[in-house]
Amino acid sequence: MLLEDYYSEDHSKVIFSRQQASDFAKHIAGDFNPIHDPDAKRFCVPGDLLFSLVLAKCGLSQKMRFVFSGMVNDGVALDFPDTTAATLDIVDGNGRKYLSLERSGETTRDRELIRDLTSRYVRFSGQTFPHILVPLMAEQQVMINPDRPLVIYESMAIDLDRLDFRDPELELTRPVLEVDGKRGNVRLEFCLKSAGEEVGRGEKAMVISGLRAYDADRVQTMVDSYNSRKQNLAS
Questions:
Q1: Which residues of the chain have pLDDT under 50?
Q2: What 8-state DSSP symbol labels residue 36?
Q3: For residue 159, what are the domain limits?
Q4: d(CA 166, CA 222)
Q5: Can you give the CATH number for the domain in which 136 is found?
Q6: Please, are residues 56 and 66 in contact by the beta-carbon 8 Å criterion?
Q7: Among 111, 98, 117, which residue's Cα sits nearest to residue 158?
Q8: Which of 94, 174, 207, 208 could anchor a disulfide with 184, C-beta 3.0 to 4.6 Å?
Q9: pTM for the predicted model, two decimal places
Q10: Looking at residue 13, what DSSP letter applies?
């Protein structure tokens, strides 16, 4: 994965075009959410692209927690500081914050490890719908609004035992959906393994809103539509 293909830099500012962000979502993350289409009315740069760029520019630390606080549209110029500070914020020229990072432990700039971990994680993350989210909704007998589905990427955390491993693999260990009225909190807990040995663990958190009673037929229609889009856009 050549991350440079998915963003541009202008006077130390990072900018994403709609096409760059969409290509990352579809070709790297395998995420065919319409919100990442170049012509989407409510277009949004994938959170996993921001995550990937932070690792590329700031290194990989043993403990990292990312909190997303704003949706990045095309043309927004962001500051990505090249720093080893324990905390940092990704902001635009007006100081608006889109992503915050807290980290601790040892830090590595190993490009191969960062590239491999990034590519494995974004592929894992991109499979949230329908592979993980639909079974969770069926279990809780709720569903997102099929006419205006809204899934907000809230945070992501990793906790690594060491930084000298190679070829990491991610395994989902515990998916959870907690329902509170029309709102749902989703946690996807996972572990990282290298050569069969667990070397770390992590969690992706999302918020889903507009929940209503589960309707198997309407959920299947959403899944069929998503898979059709995926097949058409990938061909």
A1: none
A2: G
A3: 3-234
A4: 37
A5: 2.40.160
A6: no
A7: 117
A8: 208
A9: 0.92
A10: E
